[in-house]
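Students often ask why inverse folding is considered easier than folding. One informal answer: many sequences map to the same fold, so there is more than one right answer. In these notes we will look at a single instance of the problem. The structure comes first.
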């Protein structure tokens, strides 16, 4: 029986028929993770009071587009990797946990910006940065476990 989640377009067969396509997607995924997490860590360290000579809002204006570009790269490459075997992967507990952690990290980011945590840089803002780092690191760990579960 054909996997109805796999789709009908030429993209899936192209990924499956080229030996380097999937590894290239993995490289893009890791690059996106590096952009996302790297820019977040710099901003989070500034919220904790490091590099006080750097104004926090200009740093945030620089970091946010890098973070969003990294997230877009992670999301696009991740969806393409998922499209190669959707039924099997959507049944994988590690992937489901990873997706939940990413959703929580996104909600934390929205909360961080809605409460103007950059402007406050208070104890709750610092707690939100710890939560952010923890959620993203846990999502990365779950991503590595997908292949083993």
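Output (designed amino acids):
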């Amino acid at each position: 029986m054909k996997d109805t989640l796999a789709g009908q377009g030429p993209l899936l067969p192209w990924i499956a028929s080229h030996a380097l396509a999937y590894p290239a997607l993995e490289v893009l995924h890791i690059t996106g993770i590096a952009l996302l997490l790297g820019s977040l860590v710099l901003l989070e360290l500034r919220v904790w009071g490091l590099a006080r000579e750097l104004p926090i809002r200009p740093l945030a204006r620089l970091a946010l587009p890098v973070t969003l570009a990294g997230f877009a790269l992670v999301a696009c490459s991740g969806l393409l990797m998922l499209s190669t075997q959707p039924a099997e992967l959507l049944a994988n507990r590690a992937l489901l946990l990873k997706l939940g952690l990413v959703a929580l990290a996104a909600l934390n980011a929205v909360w961080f910006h809605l409460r103007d945590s950059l402007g406050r840089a208070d104890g709750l803002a610092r707690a939100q940065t710890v939560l952010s780092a923890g959620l993203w690191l846990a999502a990365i760990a779950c991503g590595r476990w997908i292949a083993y579960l």
